[in-house]
Amino acid sequence: MANYTAADIKALRERTGAGMMDVKKALDETDGDTEKALEAIRIRGLKGAAKREGRSAVEGLVTAKVVNGTKGFLIEINAETDFVAKSAKFVALADKVLETAVAHDVDTVEALLEADVEGKKLVDFVTEEGAILGEKVVVRRLATVEGSFVDAYLHKTSKDLPAQVGVLFAVDADSDQAKEAAHDIAVHAAALSPQFLTRDEVPAETVADERRIAEETARAENKPEQAMTKIIEGRTNAYFKDNVLVDQPFAKDPKKTVTQVLESAGTSAKGLARFRVGA
């Protein structure tokens, strides 16, 4: 019988995030040598990487960091199961990915995956860590936002999981009022899921589609022709109120729009990024 204890199994599981049976098998194969067992787990995981390639990685977490109060980084990293997504090993990996994005000041996933971490490309580092975890791991998204002040807000949709929703919101002032408004609006954006910061960001084809749908619906409802223009504009504006952050009614005071809240704080919106895991 290999020379190892329950404490050795526990310690190796904490280091690798691997399952108990995988850890015990590796310790049996290496006669209880934890460093060799760690290597065996990694090798076995890398051999299985090709098999995992076609699997779906839809669980995971979002995490964020703001540098000097003026530039925010937001990432989403995915695994296959929530069991791995909430493991300390996976959370530490996400922190390393975020740390690398900040250190190299990159703003695309492609550039991030090519960045150096511990003497290797991040893409290879993630693959090796995924091998230890025994699941496909994907760095899915990266966003950066800049302004005079950037607020980062992370929201847990389940107390048992890491943050599933993350928001960066930037404003063009750094007064106390502006900072408070920025935080409140970041929380608002996490809850109300705006797709765009301003109307200018909405693709022209999307606006055209909304106007067409509004007209076709109005005609199907036999609305009077003389009222058609007003009806189309009203329904198009309703789309903006649902999907454009600055046009949305403010969650804490729906009598005000987000724009009005920002104006009261002496500032305006400069940038928005919002991720929800898997969405």
From TrEMBL:
For this protein, what is any one GO molecular function term? translation elongation factor activity
Which keywords fit this entry according to its UniProt record?
Answer: Cytoplasm, Elongation factor, Protein biosynthesis
Q: What is its main location?
A: cytoplasm
Annotated Translation elongation factor EFTs/EF1B dimerisation domain residues = 72-278
- Is Protein biosynthesis among this UniProt entry's keywords? yes
Using the UniProt annotation, give all residue ranges assigned to the region (Involved in Mg(2+) ion dislocation from EF-Tu): 81-84
**Keyword Protein biosynthesis among UniProt keywords:** yes
Q: What highest taxon heads this organism's lineage?
A: Bacteria
A Pfam family it matches:
EF_TS
Please describe what this protein does: Associates with the EF-Tu.GDP complex and induces the exchange of GDP to GTP. It remains bound to the aminoacyl-tRNA.EF-Tu.GTP complex up to the GTP hydrolysis stage on the ribosome.
Q: Which family does it belong to?
A: Belongs to the EF-Ts family.
- The molecule here is called Elongation factor Ts
- Species of the source: Nesterenkonia jeotgali
Organism classification:
Bacteria, Bacillati, Actinomycetota, Actinomycetes, Micrococcales
